[in-house]
Specification:
279 residues; Rossmann fold; Cobalt-precorrin-4 Transmethylase, domain 1; four-stranded parallel β-sheet; 9 helices; binds iron/sulfur cluster; iron; 4-hydroxy-3-methylbut-2-enyl diphosphate reductase activity; 4Fe-4S; metal-binding; isoprene biosynthesis
Length: 279
């Protein structure tokens, strides 16, 4: 009989769970709603919500006037918020409170005249929103080698992507400190990502193989896959239980499950049930 161990914590983080619960309530109480971009990087969950009336679009022009609009956990810029207000009868704001906090911090830095550095990935929607809030007047640094882009400045304000690796953040901050007389640093890292990564590392010590479950478009799920792989055990990445080839289970007495912050509980339960029925 196989033993199944699920990483703890795993799956939805606080911000994603809150956003999806908000969306569910609106869909059930008020009906269809538009989302600019996928509300969550998980195709199965988006498909489930689409059946209840969620419509995902790529541009505000695709939203009919007087529609309901959902803002995902990564947030949006104030400019985009104003554009959406013109299209909407009701904006439902699913921005994670931790992301909102980072948005308040960056506004404060701009108001107080700091040159701003955001430590993170410039292509991520959360960072695009932060840049939009200060009208593009922030430099995004992803790695230590790029700090020269900041130049020398008298007052430097630093903020982080919420999912930033804390070691990378600390290394970049110490380099930046050499380039300015005054530096104000807001550590806006949220622990949800790190906790899921640590739980996956720990799980790898107790099992013969790990199943990573989550969307292939989910960067944080991909990171869990890399962590499990680098730990040297057998790893497979699936989006849902039906994708699992049962031959992978052969010879493994203990099987671990880990899931990205955008993987809903029902996909994790489905996988657990499938594994239990194959014992
Ligand atoms: S990872 Fe953290 S900041 Fe991002 S949505 Fe989840 S709880 Fe919020």
């Amino acid at each position: 009989m196989k033993q199944i161990i699920v990483a703890d914590p795993t799956g939805f983080c606080f911000g994603v769970r809150r956003a999806i619960e908000t969306l569910e309530k609106i869909l059930s109480d008020e009906g269809p709603i538009y989302s600019l971009g996928m509300p969550i990087h998980n195709p199965q969950e988006v498909e489930r919500l689409a059946k209840k009336g969620l419509v995902v679009v790529d541009s505000p022009d695709m939203i009919p006037p007087l529609s309901r609009i959902f803002i995902r956990a990564h947030g949006i810029s104030s400019e985009l918020f104003s554009t959406l207000q013109k299209h909407s009868i009701h904006i439902v704001d699913g921005t994670c409170p931790f992301v909102k906090k980072a948005q308040e911090r960056i506004k404060l830095l701009a108001r107080e005249g700091y040159k701003i550095c955001i430590i993170g990935n410039g292509n991520h929607p959360e960072i695009k929103a932060l840049q939009g809030i200060v009208e593009g007047k922030a430099t995004v640094i992803e790695k230590k080698e790029d700090v020269t882009e900041i130049g020398k400045t008298a007052k430097l304000g630093v903020i982080s992507q919420t999912t930033q690796d804390s070691k990378v953040f600390a290394a970049i901050v110490s380099e930046l400190a050499l380039r300015t007389q005054e530096m104000r640093v807001y550590n806006t890292i949220c622990n949800a990502t790190r906790e899921r990564q640590d739980a996956t590392r720990k799980l790898a010590q107790f099992v013969d193989g790990i199943i990573v479950v989550g969307g292939r478009n989910s960067a944080n799920t991909g990171k869990l896959y890399d962590i499990a792989r680098f730990s040297g055990i057998d790893v497979v990445w699936i989006e849902h239980a039906e994708e699992l080839d049962r031959r992978w289970l052969s010879g493994k007495a203990r099987v671990g499950i880990t899931a990205g912050a955008s993987t809903p509980d029902w996909l994790i339960s489905q996988l657990k049930n499938t594994l239990s029925s194959r014992r």
